[in-house]
Amino acid sequence: MKFLVLLALLTSCMYGQWITGYYSANNGVEPVSAIPWSKYTHLIHFAASAGVGTNGQGNGTVNMQYLVQPEINQLITSRPAGKKVIVELADNGSYLMAFAQNTAPGMINTFVNNIVSFVISNGYDGVDIDWEANINTAQYQNLITLLRTAMPSKIITVAAGDWGGMPTAIAGISQDLDQVNVMCYDMDNDRTPSWYNDALLQAGDYSERACDARVSHVTAAGTPAAKIGVGIPFYGRRNIGVTQPGVAGNFPQFTVFYRNLVSDPARWQGAFMQYDTVHKADYLSVTTLNEFVSYNGTRSIGDIVSWAKAQGFGGFMTFTVEYEYLAGQTGDARYPLSTVLYSDVFGASQLAPDPGPILSAGSPSGTLNASTSATLSLTTNVNATCAYATTAGIDYPAMPNTFTTTGGTAHSTTVTNLQPGNSYSYYVKCADQAGVNNPTDYVISFAIAAAGPAAQVTPAVGFGMSASFLLQVSDARGYAALQQASLMISNGSVAHACYIDYWAPSRTLYLWNDAGTGATSAVLGSATVLSNSQCSVDALAATVTGADTTLTLYLPVSFTWSYTGGKTLFTFAADSALASGWKQSGSWIVE
Fold it and tell me: What is the rounded distance in angstroms from the CA atom of residue 414 to the CA atom of residue 424?
């Protein structure tokens, strides 16, 4: 039965097992919110590298290289259900012996542990190894074996070529690999005559470089066809001083991204577009500029897919997705090569279900200040209408709450009746203008800080040369948790104020001096009158009581004749963890 199912897959339009795209970190062109998830099964985040210490030697660490933590977090958070995000570990461009030294005996266990920790702590689904320089076969194989042992359920892929003993190294551990993606590009480097960046077939001319030859070295060494992914570049090469392939001579070369090539009216003209039907390669013969430009277009991608299916290969790889990204277009037109590749692999009728709008930048998060409300916000990659529920797994049409501000790409709404000290999760789904909605929840989670103490004074308004103030302080932790209660009657400054502190642990009253730089004190109930030029407070007559969550401080205050006029009442309270901050709580006229 399993054989029949496999045979059906291999003979139907559902053949392809994976389409894996490389996405360059911090690329500045295609944001995470614009990644065409519906065209890919796997995404490789390019790239971290093997670490090197200050002594210039491999030190067993993972170097972030091009990666930045905020983008990692956003990429993992925005990953749709069923899609896999893998981190690439590449050669260290500053030191090409880094892989060899980090996988040497005595260092490799540390290196593997750090790779595993990096993958797991950042939420990646696996790791891609791109070790191309100074390959040590035994160490390469040992690295993969140890990674598989340490991460039996994670995805392990490699970027493969036909140089440096790589085919032999990979074949020896292919059982531990999920994908062996062969880099069918840069086949025009360091060579003459002029040639294609990615020709598919040698077509009997064994002096030429082509994808079929490169792949054959990997499979001939023993890697099963089902593990092979055929690499397709989303960039090409401009050759200056020649208009055709196969012309002898050395010609200056410049890499050109597909997005820039199709946006260049001087070169992207129908009259210049050619196709090599023998070697299966797209190119431009730009006679007006005396240039030969090799690239991969929709025609060569179709031939690559047909050939790979006939060989029984397991999938396809693209490098890199932002190289094709046309920001000024909409829908699939932004991803012309990825769209054609996916359609050719799976067939137009078998396109993966649209995952709906891509949600990102959800907020708030973490712990918010004590409040009974909060504003939920997020962005989508297309215009959409967003809704939310407080229970996970509710289908979009049944969600009870629609965002107040929605319909564009920025969405927000206010949630109320929140309780300090509690945590909250809101489950969001959005629908685009075609009515396609998210099948999975986008979760916005946060906590509300526990409420701190609050103080109020009675009377809050009055006049006279003396007053019997009641300072009442409430605290959810209970009155015994309170440490400080303060009343300040002033013109807004600590200096020249009637500023009284009560320190609960020692039951002590403090009255600050005229300058507000120090204070005299007395234990509550002692026969002491604390005085400054503004007021006095009788410590013997003052009292304090506590019940449940409320502490009540009675303060008999007398003002001096020199302190007449309108004053403001300020209050403050603190426990061991939180403080109320100074609050304007009333007014008093000294007369």
Answer: 13
Reduced to 3 states (helix: H, G, I; strand: E, B; else coil), residue 339 is helix
Judge contact between 173 and 157, C-beta under 8 A.
no
The span from the CA of 270 to the CA of 246, in Å, is 22
State both tokens at 168: 């032999």
From the number of C-beta atoms within 10 Å of its C-beta (0-12, 13-18, 19+), residue 72 rates as buried
What is the rounded CA–CA span in Å between residue 128 and residue 339? 24
Mind listing the pLDDT tens digit for each residue in 292-310?
999 999 999 999 999 999 9
Question: How long a stretch of residues is the chain?
Answer: 591
- Alpha carbon distance 465, 96 (integer Å): 84
Distance separating alpha carbons of residues 23 and 322, to the nearest angstrom: 7
Can you tell me the distance from the alpha carbon of 199 to that of 527, in angstroms, rounded to the nearest whole number?
Answer: 100
**What integer pLDDT is reported at residue 530 of this predicted model?**
98
What distance lies between CA 298 and its chain's CA centroid?
32
SS (H, E, C) 319-333: ECHHHCCCCCCCHHH
pLDDT of residue 239: 96
What tokens were used for 24? 């360059």
CB 232 within 8 A of CB 198: yes
Domains delineated in the chain: 13-350 (3.20.20.80), 359-448 (2.60.40.10), 454-590 (2.60.40.10)
- Among 493, 492, 435, 498, which residue's Cα sits nearest to residue 466? 498
Residue 6 tokens, joined? 């496999």
pLDDT of 468 reads: 96
CB 48 within 8 A of CB 65: yes
DSSP calls for 181-213: EE----TTTT-SS---SS-S--TT-TTS--HHH
Residues of the chain with pLDDT under 50: 1-16, 349-352
Q: What pLDDT, on a 0 to 100 scale, did the predictor assign at position 353?
A: 54
Contact (Cβ atoms closer than 8 angstroms) between residue 48 and residue 91: no
Round to whole Å and give the CA distance between 116 and 150.
7
Cα(351)–Cα(339) distance, rounded to whole angstroms?
A: 10
pTM reported for the whole predicted model? 0.60
Residue with tokens 């500045």: 28
Q: How far apart are CA 128 and CA 87, in angstroms?
A: 6
Residue 198 tokens, joined: 């990615």
pLDDT at 313: 97
Report whether 462 contacts 589 (CB < 8 A): yes
Query: What residue has token string 């750090």?
Result: 114
Instruction: Give how far the C-alpha of residue 348 lies from the chain's centroid of Cα atoms, to the nearest Å.
Output: 31
Q: How far is CA 515 from the centre of its chain?
A: 52
Is residue 529 exposed (0-12), middle (13-18) or buried (19+ Cβ within 10 Å)?
middle
The CA-atom distances, in angstroms, between 579 and each of 59, 81, 489, 495, 566 are 47, 43, 19, 22, 27
